[in-house]
Amino acid sequence: xxxxxxxxxVRPWLETDAESLQRHADNRKVSMHLRDRFPxxxxxxxxxxxxxxIARQPSPTVWAIEVDGEASGGIGIELHSDVERVSAEIGYxxxxxxxxxxxxxxxxxxxxxxxxxxxxxTRLYALPFADHAASVRVxxxxxxVREGHLxxxxxKDGKIRDQLLYATYQQL
Length: 172
Prior knowledge:
Mean pLDDT: 97
Low-confidence stretches: none
Shape: globular
Order of helices and strands: EEHHHEEEHEHEE
Radius of gyration: 15 Å
Strand order of the largest sheet: 1-2-3-4-5-6-8-7
Structural class: alpha+beta
Oligomer: single chain
Distance between the termini: 23 Å
Strand content: 25-35%
Largest sheet: 8 strands, mixed
Number of strands: 8
């Protein structure tokens, strides 16, 4: 998938993205709002391991967000199976140097539309931490609707945190 947008390009990850990935991902302000599988500190070996994993995927569902000629963030979906095979979780992140420019909203909106075209899903959802106002704004601007408040549903850095459930649906 390659989406040429006004603020960014959503494209496949490349092996040559290791240095820019590491530079943008190695930020506590970024990792504190993501799952534990996104490490901090984010060293060059973590970047190479991630890119190697992506390269082995037959049909990747995680893409780079390129800004100003370099991979500055990522966006992806996690497809489900069994009775939830019509649903997928979507997640995204951006390096701090490109925050506040509408990039995440534009990328999320475009990838959402493309995911409904490419995959046999009817629903996309996200689970931002309840105290992450910027991510909530991105989801709302991209047309996602809040469906719930999951109290004490996650733990990050030893602190129990609430999550919110946001979703959007395929227009049938």
